[in-house]
Amino acid sequence: MGNQLQSSAQKVQSALQALGFPFSVVELSASTRTASEAASAVGCGVAQIAKSLVFRGKHSHKPVLVIVSGVNRVDEKKLRQLIGEPVGKAKADFVREQTGFAIGGVPPAGHVRPIETWIDEDLLAQEEIWAAAGTPHALFSLSPADLLRLTDGTVVDIKEEQ
Ligand code: 5CA
Description:
By secondary structure, this protein is α/β, with parallel strands linked by helices. The chain has helices at 7-18, 35-42, 76-83, 92-99, 144-151, and strands at 26-27, 49-57, 63-69, 87-89, 116-120, 129-132, 138-142, 154-156.
């Protein structure tokens, strides 16, 4: 049977189970720290990687999670329009405090507290996507429809135009 997961990956696996999802976290020896590394590690396209990026409202200081396709960048002006205040990229310690996970392994759900979540519409064009599962060596796969159910996120046009 499978090997034991590292504790942060196990935290994600347990959270997924508790939320009623059957996804299996897989741990790879290769790095999955970046979207392109993650895509190479599982043999999928970079567009199929769901990056979970944390931003911070500049006035409210509230965390905002944006889940974007691995090939896209978040347009902070579009995010500002959506949440009604300017945003900045969260610093590493804020990410850990708000999600319970370190950058490079932030999952789309299973955080220490609920986070307002926005989802890049481009992810819906994929049949299968892969998301981080707590560590820079752990991922799980799911459909875009499951990502919506898992995160209760809102699908939006959020990418920077090239
Ligand atoms: N495991 C991979 C694939 S799912 C992953 O987590 N990728 S990621 O893109 O969602 O997370 C890495 C992101 O963290 C980078 O895109 C970058 O935007 C952000 N990041 C990296 N270093 C820092 C830093 N020092 N401060 C703030 N954000 C950072």
